[in-house]
## 1
Amino acid sequence: MRRLALLTLLAAALAAGEILNASYDVARDVYRDLNAAFAKTAAGQGIVVRQSHDGAAKQARAVIEGLPADVVTMNSSHDIDQIARAGLIAADWRKRLPNNASPSYSLHVFVVRSGNPKQIRDWGDLLKPGVQIIAVNPKTGTNGKYTYLGLHAWASRQPGANDDSVRAALAAFYRNVLTLEKGGRAATTAFAQRELGDVLVTFESEALRIQQEFAGKVEIVWPSLSVRADNPVAWVDANVAKKNTLAAARAYLEFLYTKEAQEIFARHYMRPSDPQVLAAQAGRFAAVETVTVEEAFGSWEAAQKQHFDDGGWFDQLYGPR
């Protein structure tokens, strides 16, 4: 009841001319700058964009449970599909905006202490005894799902790989996890501010931000293989219809594909979907081989069912601590 009351108050606070963007944990800074830039455009005049941030999986559940978001800006299509299956977003949401409705993307890397004392170079080094890992819980944050899937994809490519060897790699990784945080920013706080662990596994965009903020204290290691993390967006049909905010929500999301917005994504170390902007900003990003979830696992739905649903591989391998 209390949660419902809070959601009702939030909805009432969002007056005409305001929209709410429900986004994932580590996207706070980029959307702060995107919102400011949007407000200066002709399409954004008089529109105030409010933000809500948490782990992506948690945000998707919040929208399904009544968070009155006009738009969602997530880090996997699975999170938006969950909302669509609840009847709040049209099933064809990918077709409504360019690039399958993903204006940017990222991938997973490793943040280590200065000098890389544990000599971490690739996923296999995270499996060694004595390495303490900070990561996100895949049950609460999609950041954590990408960590798991990235290791799975790497382990599957090793000589003689089979389900048993991949399971063994995953089990070794999670034995080394010092703490599983609910979202990417909480994981950053644990590693960079509280100085826990030897390595943080997180999005490249967050890693480069950490390197900038904690200059001289950390380094970034790019693995040999990573899973491409698209950042899809959608307006929430049920909510914009109820609040009469479709025009504002659509204008905001379309703005994310403009050259100005694409350059803001790049400045925040998120790889822009515009190939020309990406080429111009190539110096910011290391060349890394990536695979998509669809290529490596068939679909997000298949990956979720096998690995992250209750009783799936993650539950079997991690277990209670």
## 2
Amino acid sequence: MIWQTSRFQIDLSQPRVMGIVNVTPDSFFDGGKYFTQPGNFSDVFAHCDQLISDGADLLDIGGESTRPGAVPLSLAEELARVLPVVRHAVKLGVPVSVDTYKPEVMQAVLDLGADIINDVWALRQPGAAQVVAKHPSCGVCLMHMHREPLTMQRAPMEGDVVAQVLTFLERAAHDLQSAGVDSARIVLDVGIGFGKTVAQNFSLLARQKEFLAAGYPLLAAWSRKSSLAAMSGSSRAAEGRLESEDRLVPSLAAALLAVDRGARIVRVHDVRETVQALKVWAVAR
């Protein structure tokens, strides 16, 4: 299975690790850790370099937090955060994904040589699908999100979440193909934590293989998510105190389960540890 992107044909016969690069002061896990002052990108550049040294197959750069309750960011601010990092990342020899829903940002990063658009809105914003469709070969990841980041956890989904998410993603992929985008360019993400309860998130993992019937590669993004804290069984978790920095082991377990159930890309903060865990999985499978 090949994922066609702007500059690379990514071989998905083995699972690939996508390293997260948050150029934000407010992302739920590492907001502000690498981007501390506007205009100072040295730490972000070094983080990109380190993720590749740790074994990342791809980088995913995002300038706007989409954590629950996040307030939308202006176009000008997102461009100011993201473009310098993309300019650096496209020189590093790996596919570069940009996590954005704004068509203007999509066009700008593709013009700089980015390979993939990773959109939590699944190209539902006006003009977004047109930007991707007119590009000859960029990859795209379509994610399911219930409602929108500011309000998505106030009223999570109801009913059979697997059936609803699968229907949504199949329709989004079909619509994109109808616009002229080849199926080899499309990857799907069920959207863990985006308008779903803890139980619903884990049902998506338990029944993940059902999504393989859609015929597209799956990207799994469990890294450091709050649902992992809720199910870890520790006293700190029971008290609601298992912070995001304490969720490494549950994140690795979820990544391995996702891969074992058919995911071809795992989007993670902890690249080195995930690469090591996947090496054990590959030997023992």
## 3
Amino acid sequence: MQMNEYTTNRRQMAKLAGWSLILMAIVAGIGYGYAFGAIYVKGDSTATFSNILQQTSMLPLVMITYSIMLLLDVVVAWALYKFFLRTNPVLAQLSAWLRVVYCVWLAVAILQLYYAQEMATMQGADAHAVMRYIDCFLDVWSQGLIVFGVHLLLIGTLACRTAAIPKLISGLAFFAGMAYLGTNILQQTWVDYMLYKATVEAILSLPMALGELVLAVWLVWKGGK
């Protein structure tokens, strides 16, 4: 591939990855921040079930937005692989496959919401059974986020090895990967972690979000130029 052709292609991949990440952040805010937050009451199956019945569009909206996020994740995996290919082909390929594996986990998690929706619409539905599916969605998604955390560590490493990317951006990506990895491993292995989860996430939520978002803005603005 000629150098100018490679530069053009790399620029296209940077913009594709960047805009996909920005769109994903918006969709996540709608799906998790708004719709899921409107129906889910932690530890209260009766209230959660009541919210699902009263706000019938919210759970389908969560499923739709998460499905969009899944598709965007596949696009991002491919675009970042292409963008970082010459930085380190092995790490670029490994990071892409890890994001694809995370997508499989996310698909299984979304399926739990489908089961919850189907059960909630049945006559004589059990609130506790519906809640189990929703909790299973959160649990499976948390498992997938461990894989996603490793993916971000590799993206941070690739960004660090790409001379054009500021070290602050690669550092944020690496820190976000460590945060995703640490919080979700604790959630899966330490029962008492749920007592501290809200506090930990309140502290780490911003740097975790910035890890990819700042990289996304850089990719759209300067990536591949």
